Amino acid sequence: MVNLGLFTGNKPLKSRKVSFRIPYYTQWGQHLLICGSDALLGSWNVKKGLLLKPSHQGEELIWSGSIPVPPGFQSEYSYYVVDDTRNILRWEVGKKRKLLLPDGLQDGQLLELHDLWQTGSDNIPFSSAFKDVIFGRSWSLGVERPWGITQNTSDQDGSVLQFRICCPYLEEGTSIYVIGSSLKLGQWKIQDGLKLAYAGDSFWQADCIMGKDDFPLKYKYCKYGKAGTSVECGASRELFVDVATGESRFVLLSDGLMREMPWRGAGVAIPMFSVRSEADLGVGEFLDLKLLVDWAVESGFHLVQLLPINDTSVNCMWWDSYPYSSLSVFALHPLYLRVEAMSENIQEDIKQEIREARVQLDKKDVDYEAAMATKLSIAKKIFAREKESILNSKSFLEFFSENQEWLKPYAAFCFLRDFFETSDRSQWGRFSEFSKEKLEKLVSKESLHYEVISFHYYIQFHLHLQLSEAAEYARKKGVVLKGDLPIGVDRNSVDTWVYPNLFRMNTSTGAPPDYFDKNGQNWGFPTYNWEEMSKDNYGWWRARLTQMGKYFTAYRIDHILGFFRIWELPDHAMTGLCGKFRPSIPISQEELESEGLWDFNHLTQPYIGQELLQEKFGASWTIIASTFLNEYQKGFYEFKEECNTEKKIASVLKSFLETSMLVKSEEKLRRKLFDLLQNVALIKDPEDLRKFYPRFNIEDTTSFKDLDQHSQNVLKRLYYDYYFQRQEGLWRQNALKTLPVLLNSSNMLACGEDLGLIPSCVHPVMQELGLVGLRIQRMPSEPGLEFGIPSQYSYMTVCAPSCHDCSTLRAWWEEDEERRHRFFQAVVGSDELPPDQCTPEIVHFVLRQHVEAPSMWSIFPLQDLLALKEDYTTRPAVEETINDPTNPKHYWRYRVHVTMESLLDDKDLMKKIKDLVRGSGRCYPQKDLESGQANGVGSAKLPLGSELPSLAQTNGIPNREAVALV
User: Which domain of life is it from (predicted)?
Assistant: First the structure.
């Protein structure tokens, strides 16, 4: 114990006591503790933190504890959920709390801290999407009283209360008040309430002396100003103070966010390459975003969402149209360059070439190869004339200095790719393995190849300028620009060349069978070596997000499930069926043997009997068997060594059909041979032969069906355990290691694409971290539902009728007659036969469902919005699909068939869309002259019958009233 007398000479001081109090619901075996920067709070060692004790207060579970502290004590601190041995189970998200002793705290007085658990959703108002764009203001607030400073109340009797509230958005000329049941708080009259002072960083505070008769106290916060008065939503806040002790105290009330109706906005989604304008060269360009932003604003939208825009030029052909296979996670795609904007002094012959190219490339779909070749050819001519002036300019040198860490390897990679005519670095001789020494020689100004290298610098510089211009334009217009973070990188990429240790190059990523493909998906990317990445606190990821944050204020995390676990396949696989989750807890050989399963050859080797061969190949079965199989036992076969993987089968089959008399589809034969290879019950771990993984949809295999009943029962139980039970804690722990690093690397609003086979741990973790999820009506995450119910979506979601990975609303309506009937009956509520075509009336009904949903965002593919008018439905609906997930070689080339200039002239369409947004209570990105609503603010009323959504979590976190954005 510190001798407090040392601080004041001969007169000993009574210790000040600090008491912590927080409402929090826990599960059995969980405890709350406080850990902080000071030794009294454990010096950030959770094992030494202050353990709190629970007590019930009404329906709330309150955790509290106290410590004596010396004068001048200050510390940062956070709350943690721990188990019986103080292992961390959960922690608060957001900034560390700051504890400063109030100036007026006297000897022996008690300081009570009344806190609320901080979740990731509490930080959403401070993301750049809200703080800099939606709530961005041209006026500034001056700090009236710095954070934590209290008035001098030492000569007054009673308890001192400091009210603290966070209010991210405030119109000019508006003040914050607290009103309540006490006379000191105006007895609910705003004009007599307590006015709060601005403390900085969107926080407001004020002090008040309360006597015994003022408790229990009920109160609320409110806004008062030119725009009128608004009192926060929900039940009154309540404060109970034990006045029976007669103890004088300071009570600091950290009341979190002001409770207001949730901010809800709408947006449009379209790939960058799909945008059409009068100025582009056959493909959407970054500067076209300004037109798209203008159209979004006029249509009542607050957000524009794009697909990934990184360079994908791996193969230098149309395969590179796949936007999720990055050549570099830092470099922008030259496809989106506007060559006309590269210089103010383009010669007339080049201008004429641009005009001619514009006509030639103005096609129905994107011609990826022609557009790329044309742009690079013209860019090289402009570069040749102005390279000296640009490369020596101040703006370029600043850009180069800031980006050289990734820019040098990127330019070198592009040069080597073109020089060796392949991105397969194993063909690059001494450059196959990356080293900084080789890189510096290659990119030095004295290098013979410097002009080629610097051309790639030059292209990236102009891409940066053009995207920055568009991004700043969107911000000023109050429109959030939302990017896309791909889950993988190409196997032959700059990143795998420079950082091979960060990737498991003998593996491939994908997804297990789902709505899109019963055979699963194989994306071809190497999986991540998370253990290696953690050694520098995921520096590669942090740099990636920092770079993205230069242009975007929100982003979509592609396949967020991959941060919990990834579906990992061997690199020799072509389909996505026979994979396993990484990380995961396998089934051990001991586990199987204890259950009476011993025949591991039957369980792990393709189970191929003569009957199965005859069933699949008919009369040709003997030819197939002799070519691909060996008979190892009477009537049973195994694959030959030269064709015992999917890639080997594909290669042998191609050669076989060139000489064979069989006239059959190569694709169908390959699929049937793959079926044989995949006919296993268990997959053996290549790194540990005593560990196994159940094949997905194990009951579909004859390998399983031919087992005895006991073995089948055991495998069914182990299958269910592997896929739905045993991994949950591991996957949660894995996500909580990686996702917070991403979220803390930038100030962008983060949304997660959480579609597919969703582990039960995913949504609680996303809620905890403040990640906004995705809801597609025809792919509901709720069990037992064929179609999602938008009116029941939670606030922390983006809802959409379709996305780039599925058919558009119009195409879906036409492609599945039976499901269309069920939708018409269950969702539209009609027993009549639905029309064959998706009429504008049906489109309006579906869009209205989504725009009225409680979701934070309703984001619509542009194709679905255009379907509101018959004029835009003359093109076959199937041509509007952006991606076919079942086809790994899909050509990503969809272009909107009308220019953005024409859409801006279509006042009728914009009125139809704006009326939808206006009727839903979603907010507008500009001043609405009819309603007088200001930038970013709307009526924000929910449709009748909807419950007030809340940002608060229910899984172990206090169920507060609606903690909304504004």
Answer: Eukaryota
How far, rounded to the nearest angstrom, does the alpha carbon of residue 680 sit from its chain's CA centroid?
A: 35
CA distance linking residue 194 with residue 224, whole number of Å: 12
Predicted confidence at residue 891, as pLDDT, reads: 97
Assign 939 a pLDDT band (cuts: 50, 70, 90).
Answer: very low
Residue showing tokens 């990356």: 434
What is residue 337's three-state secondary structure?
A: coil
Residue 961 pLDDT greater than 60, yes or no: no
Q: Is 716 helix (H, G, I), strand (E, B) or coil?
A: helix
pLDDT (0 to 100) of residue 344: 94
Strand order in the sheet with 773-776: 749-752, 554-557, 480-485, 303-305, 265-269, 857-861, 797-800, 773-776
Quick one: pLDDT band at residue 517, thresholds 50, 70, 90?
A: confident
Instruction: State how far the Cα of 921 lies from the Cα of 845, in Å rounded to an integer.
Output: 16
* Residue 578 CB neighbours (<10 A): 20
Instruction: Give residue 271's pLDDT.
Output: 98
Strand partners, 162: 207, 252
DSSP 95-161: SPEEEE--TTPPTT-EEEEE-----GGGGGGGSHIIIIIIS--SS----SS-TT-----TTS-SEEE
* Token reading at 242: 């034990």
Burial of 149 (C-beta count, 10 Å sphere; 0-12/13-18/19+)? middle
Please state, in angstroms and as integers, the Cα–Cα distance from residue 311 to each residue in 134, 140, 283, 335, following that order: 30, 39, 15, 8
Residue owning tokens 């009673």: 158
Read off the pTM.
0.91
Residue 964, pLDDT > 80, answer no
Residues 6+ apart with CB under 8 A from 146: 199, 200
For residue 935, what pLDDT band results from cuts at 50, 70 and 90? very low
d(CA 683, CA 691) in angstroms, rounded, equals 9
Rg, the chain, Cα only: 32
The whole-angstrom separation of Cα 37 and Cα 96 is 10
Beta bridge partners of 238: 218
For the chain, how many helices (H) and strands (E)? 26, 38
847-866 pLDDT tens trace? 999 999 999 999 999 999 99
What is the distance of C-alpha 421 from the center of its chain? 36
Do residues 314 and 327 lie in contact, with contact meaning Cβ atoms separated by under 8 Å? yes
How far apart, in whole angstroms, are the C-alpha atoms of residue 894 and residue 855? 28
Beta bridge partners of 69: 16
